[in-house]
Amino acid sequence: MSDDPNPFARPSGESNPYTPSSSAASIGGAGAVRLSEVHSRGMVGQIPILGVLMIVQGVFITLMGLVFGGYAFAMPMIFRSIREDAAKQGANPPPMPQEMELGMLIGLGVAAVCVLAIAVFTIWAGVRVIKFQSRTFAIVMLCVGMLMCLTCYCAPTQIALSIYGLIVLLNGPVTDAFRFAEKGHSAREIQQAFLSLP
Predict the structure, then answer these.
(1) Which among 74, 94, 68, 73 is positioned nearest to 82, based on CA atoms?
(2) Are 64 and 145 in contact (CB under 8 A)?
(3) Is the pLDDT higher at 34 or at 181?
(4) Quick one: which of 147, 84, 156, 91 has its CA closest to 118?
(5) Omega before residue 17 within 30° of 0, cis
(6) Which residues, 6 or more positions from 28, have their beta carbon under 8 angstroms from its beta carbon?
(7) Between helices 135-144 and 155-169, what is the axis angle to 10°?
(8) Torsion of CA 129, 144, 105, 55, to 10 degrees
(9) Which of 9, 65, 162, 194 reaches 20 to 30 Å from 80, CA-CA?
(10) How high is the pLDDT of residue 30?
(11) Integer distance in angstroms from the first to the last C-alpha of the chain?
(12) Where are the transmembrane segments (predicted)?
């Protein structure tokens, strides 16, 4: 019989492999994202979804901008046709003043350019969000996109996207994730690190 009081004791100097480490967790290889115990998963997993939804919304806005552009060229021709028909019937003064053609062309043209600009920037912001970049720019575009509610066409989807997007982008762990991207970490490394958390 052995004189050792505890035959299961580990030899001195050898560490227990099952003891939890108090150091920061590192996910991936060299240059991987290092997370401490204060980090949580949060809504980081929603970032790719938000980016795709912003791109889709940008496509919807693009279609609306093209419609405005079509109206910008079609409405003056319609007004001209109405005025010519009225002149043939002897209407005096004509129902559509000639100045309205230029006004409609300029007004709808400016609206089309503005809408298409918002669409392009929304798509660009969505692409950047997927890469965990340009968080502030994405927040600005979600707020600017609310101007589309004035058209009623994109109002339901834009309101839902803006509320959802702001909730995600203002989430604490999401803010930390974007900071890791600023330090040079890839979107894949960031996702692996945060999604491995409980």
Answers:
(1) 94
(2) no
(3) 181
(4) 147
(5) no
(6) 189, 192, 193
(7) 150
(8) 20
(9) 65
(10) 38
(11) 47
(12) 49-74, 102-125, 137-170
Degrees to nearest 5, angle at CA 81 with 62 and 67: 5
Model confidence pLDDT, tens digit, residues 59-76: 999 999 999 888 888 887
Residue length of the chain: 198
pLDDT in tens, 28-59: 443 566 665 556 777 888 999 999 999 999 99
CB-CB contact of 158 with 145 (8 Å): yes
Angle, CA of 160, 162 and 168, to the nearest 5°: 105
In 3D space, the residue among 197, 195, 184 whose CA is nearest the CA of residue 32 turns out to be 184
Tokens 């910008």 -> residue = 72
pLDDT of 13 above 60: no
Structure tokens at 36: 């401490």
Closest CA to 37 of 20, 25, 19, 26: 25
Q: What local confidence, expressed as pLDDT, does residue 180 receive? A: 86
User: What are the residue boundaries of the structural domains of the chain, listed by start?
Assistant: 44-191
How is the chain classified by DSSP, letter by letter?
----S-TTPPPTTPPPTTSPP-SPEEESSTT-EEE-TT---TTGGGHHHHHHHHHHHHHHHHHHHHHHHHHHHHHHHHHHHHHHHHHHTT-SS-SS-THHHHHHHHHHHHHHHHHHHHHHHHHHHHHHHHTT--HHHHHHHHHHGGGGGGGSSSHHHHHHHHHHHHHHHTSHHHHHHHHHHHTT--HHHHHHHHHT--
